[in-house]
């Protein structure tokens, strides 16, 4: 009996530890739907109270954090929610899914113009990409868990994830109470779909990866429909506008105070 117990500890406990492996409080998990798997990390409030519902924050990473290690998606933004002051002031369930290599959160197309400037198109096509579909299904599952405040579901993202944030709003506009878009953009003709969702845009004026005009066009169209929407431009920043955005004193305060009507 002791030998069997010893073998169990040697063989099975490492597997259990791997499944529950954490990164500074984030827990690595997998969402499996039929034949598809979505890797994600999730952070819960330190002391979740039974029967209480908490805000849910969905964070969509950029193209450089794609993969299957279930770790790189935490590169940008994750420490913001680990800050002890923030955790105490804004207890929330924070979700960082990871998009696999070779696909994106959206069907975004791009090519360089004759003068070497990136030109973008944002087709919605008939449905979301597989990664986006799985993320939405995971969010739906969390909403039915009884732990999420349906009036305080937020979405934010940077670069590919900023584009993804606006794409998600176009597809599932009734799900989110507010959004934050860092160095992203989309089709301004779609803003009527999510006119009720306040958005805070951040962009670097010198961005040569996602030209600022794609965020500015959406902002201008959306601002006419939603006075709470706002735009912050960083005059000397290139594509890395997430660092100054995360350093904004009201970055979390702004979004957590908003609720769906």
Explain the overall architecture.
There is one protein chain. The protein is an alpha/beta fold and 261 residues long. It has a single domain (24-256), classed as Rossmann fold, CATH 3.40.50.1820. Helices cover 28% and strands 25% of the residues. The protein has 7 helices and 11 strands. The strands form 2 sheets. A 9-stranded mixed beta sheet has the order 1-2-3-5-4-8-9-10-11.
For the structure shown, list the relevant keywords:
Rossmann fold, disordered N terminus, two-stranded antiparallel ribbon, 261 residues, 11 strands, 9-stranded mixed β-sheet, alpha/beta
Query: Radius of gyration in whole Å, from Cα?
Result: 19 Å
Supply the helix-strand structural class: alpha/beta
Count of folded domains: 1
Strand order across the biggest sheet?
Answer: 1-2-3-5-4-8-9-10-11
Can you count the beta strands?
11
Q: Counting H and I runs of at least 4 residues, what is the number of helices?
A: 7
How far apart, in Å, are the first and last alpha carbons?
A: 60 Å
Low-confidence stretches at least 5 residues in length (pLDDT < 50)?
1-19
Query: Biggest sheet, in brief?
Result: 9 strands, mixed
Helix content: 25-40%
Taken from the alpha-carbon principal axes, the silhouette is: globular
Question: What is the mean pLDDT?
Answer: 91
The proportion of strand residues reads 25-35%
Name the helix and strand elements from N-terminus to C-terminus, one letter apiece.
HEEEEHEEEHEHEEHEHH
The CATH topology, please?
Rossmann fold
- CATH class designation: Alpha Beta
- Under CATH, the homologous superfamily reads Alpha/Beta hydrolase fold, catalytic domain
| CATH architectural category | 3-Layer(aba) Sandwich
């Amino acid at each position: 009996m002791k030998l069997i117990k010893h073998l169990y500890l040697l063989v099975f406990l490492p597997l259990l530890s791997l499944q529950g492996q954490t990164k500074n409080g984030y827990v690595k998990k997998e969402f499996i739907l039929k034949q598809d798997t979505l890797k994600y990390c999730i952070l819960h409030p330190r002391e979740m109270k039974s029967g209480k519902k908490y805000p849910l924050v969905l964070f969509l990473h950029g193209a450089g954090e794609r993969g299957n290690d279930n770790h790189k998606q935490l590169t940008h933004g994750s420490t913001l929610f680990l800050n002890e002051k923030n955790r105490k002031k804004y207890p929330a369930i924070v979700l960082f899914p990871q998009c696999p290599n070779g696909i994106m959160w959206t069907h975004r197309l791009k090519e360089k113009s004759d003068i070497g400037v990136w030109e973008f198109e944002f087709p919605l096509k008939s449905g979301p990409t597989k990664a986006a579909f799985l993320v939405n299904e995971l969010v739906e599952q969390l909403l039915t868990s009884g732990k999420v405040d349906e009036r305080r579901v937020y979405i934010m993202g940077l670069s590919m994830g900023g584009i993804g944030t606006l794409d998600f709003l176009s597809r599932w506009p009734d799900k989110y109470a507010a959004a934050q878009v860092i160095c992203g953009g989309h089709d301004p003709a779609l803003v009527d779909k999510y006119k009720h969702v306040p958005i805070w845009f951040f962009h670097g004026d010198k961005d040569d990866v996602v030209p600022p005009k794609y965020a500015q066009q959406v902002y201008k169209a959306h601002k006419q429909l939603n006075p709470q929407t706002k735009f912050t431009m960083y005059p000397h920043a290139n594509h890395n506008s997430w660092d100054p955005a995360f350093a904004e004193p009201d970055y979390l305060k702004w979004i957590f105070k908003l609720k769906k009507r």
